[in-house]
Design a protein that fits this description.
single chain, alpha+beta, 15-stranded antiparallel β-sheet, 5 helices, transport, OSBP_sf
């Protein structure tokens, strides 16, 4: 279930190639959902490199979820690759369990010409630090003809590396678990069938192996192996999602600003950011003007700090050692929910 949760977070990025605003240093966001039983706070703790730290917790003290989003960008001419550097941690106090993992690499293709499309690939290892169990999942690159596009597969193993179950599916669609012996037998049969088909076909020439064209959509969905159990399925997005940055219904609600919230939110909350507010209200020209003003204000503030001994003060997080894997992490200082918002920086 934790592995499925990790995959579901990646699924939210599907077809989300647009990003109108970059977070400003010190920008925050909070969300309290009593109906869903959690609260969340995040802060942009670094601008170069861009790092967003977050902390969420269950209102019934049933979970703690924290980590950082720290993409290391690489430009490859026709594509941008974002290698994730931040660690994700999930703690389940009821079971005295903690899990850590890192997201797969994300690549956006056709950044110069053509239709933008997103690919996720690489290995993701979800570790249960109490039991020593690990879920090793491979997000497969699409390959030359897109046959592996969106596919995810792997195994959950105990601390002695014995396979407990197999996990497979697509990060854009669903995830199943099945007995590892059945999974291995299915893969062997699939490989044999593919080799037979390949030997019966004429060799193709003039194939551009560096093609960045979007692979054709899958002709079929996930092929379900008999005996499999469905553990996650993506929720359908609203019909107008493509007009709103491929947001889910949940994501579309996140920028709502009720009048009663203005006296509660800190002045650094992104819902109070002028350019975002203008765009939300359909005032595109004003949003563009405000965006330029805020970016220039941020650059000026950075120059002024470099000329003095003043250092930027991160308010709600601090760097420290993750207690579970000892890696450097951003940890919440817990003071946010006391609503003590004095001496916050004027970033807007």
């Amino acid at each position: 279930c934790v592995a499925a949760f990790a995959v579901s977070a990646v699924a939210s990025q599907w077809e989300r190639t647009g990003k109108p605003f970059n977070p400003l240093l010190g920008e925050t966001y909070e969300l309290i959902r009593e109906d869903l039983g959690f609260r969340w706070v995040s802060e942009q703790v670094s601008h170069h490199p861009p790092i967003s730290a977050f902390h969420a917790e269950g209102l019934r003290e049933d979970f703690v979820f924290h980590g950082s989003i720290y993409p290391k960008l690489k430009f490859w001419g026709k594509s941008i690759e974002a290698e994730p550097k931040g660690t994700i941690t999930l703690e389940l106090p009821k079971y005295n369990e903690s899990y850590t993992w890192t997201n797969p690499t994300c690549c956006v293709h056709n950044i110069i010409v053509g239709q933008l499309w997103i690919e996720q690939y690489g290995n993701v290892e979800v570790i249960n630090h109490k039991t020593g169990e690990r879920c090793n999942m491979t997000f497969k690159p699409c390959g030359l003809f897109g046959k592996e596009l969106h596919k995810v597969e792997g195994y959950i193993q105990d601390k002695s590396k014995k396979k407990l179950c197999a996990i497979y599916g697509k990060w854009t669609e669903c995830l199943y678990t099945v007995d590892p012996a059945h999974f291995d037998a299915h893969k062997k049969t699939d490989k044999k069938t593919a080799e037979e088909k390949k030997s019966n076909k004429e060799p193709q020439s003039n194939v551009d192996e560096e093609s960045e064209e979007k692979p054709p959509p899958d002709a079929e969905t996930v092929q379900v192996i008999p005996g499999s159990v469905l553990i996650w399925k993506i929720a359908p997005r609203p019909e107008n999602s493509t007009k709103f940055y491929a947001f889910s219904t949940f994501a579309m609600q996140l920028n709502e600003l009720d009048k009663s919230m203005k006296g509660v939110l800190p002045p650094t909350d992104s819902r109070l950011r002028p350019d975002i507010r203008a765009m939300e209200n359909g005032e595109i020209d004003l949003a563009s003007t405000e965006k330029k003003r805020l970016e220039e204000k941020q650059r000026t503030a950075r120059k002024n700090r470099s000329k003095s001994t003043e250092e930027w003060k991160i308010r709600w997080f601090q760097q420290g050692s993750n207690p579970h894997n000892k890696a450097q992490d951003w940890l919440c200082t817990k003071g946010y929910w006391d609503r003590n918002y004095t001496h916050l920086p004027d970033i807007y």
